[in-house]
Amino acid sequence: MRKIRKEKKEIKKTFNRVAIIGLGVMGASLGMALKKGKIAKNVVGFARRLETRKKALACKIVDIACDRIESAVHGADFIVFCAPVSVIPGMIKSVAGGLLAPGAVLTDVGSVKNKIVVEAEKILYGCKSEFIGSHPIAGSEQHGLEAARADLYRGAVVALTPTPCISGRALQIAREFWRALGAEVVVVGPEEHDRIIARTSHLPHIIAALLAGCVGRDHSAEYGKFCGGGFRDTTRIAEGDPELWHDILENNTLYLKKELEAYQKELKKILGGLKKDKSKIIKKYLKLGVEGRHSLLSNQNTGSASRFFSNG
Known about the structure:
The chain is α/β, with parallel strands linked by helices.
């Protein structure tokens, strides 16, 4: 078990031109943070919808709003893809080659990394630009530009997922970018990232969705009167965009399957125990829940992490 040192000194680096590809809650929040912190001289955003581009300009989330990815990345020294996991490789392919500034660093905010990283490195092979995966462990069950906020990344953990192909320069630039936003950076391999996130994020999300669906399975409005804070707390993330989360989970099925099997194993133990000695089995799992939550969240708050992470 090794500890990660939290950054005590916030790095102040100014980027010349940052391009944000996608202006949903993640991309718009990024634009707000860059503008507020004066981290980039120019913030350029791409959005397909005219209404989104107009709002982004009116709310001063970006300096320039483009209707084409190619226009947004032109001259950018740092590019962030804030789009569904499955479409990011195609977006990178559309701008690879002469459209990217020499030395430009590309990254993303997707919560599945291995597929994106592998595809991006193939696409950019031989180019003078590099892609390094990023996953800010931040966000909201809300979605869209309207839900954006400037402090979304402040205090968040951002996992960087370099491979041996990535230069030290690209890693350092990505590290400085996220630290400038007030985030804590950790470094982990892309496949190991996906294994860990399947347990800490993807499993909880699918369980929250199953729980909400099970409790509301007959769509009886009367049951809602009996749903208190416990139900709201444990199912809040089930409000997440189904299309977005389908894309995320579909791209991490290998590790999600393993975590669901582990969960199923414990559920079977509870069901089996209820038939024998319900008092002991219920108490056991209630205690395990308290201990597990305290262990995970105390490690989070003290800045320690598993042996899989290196200091960012």
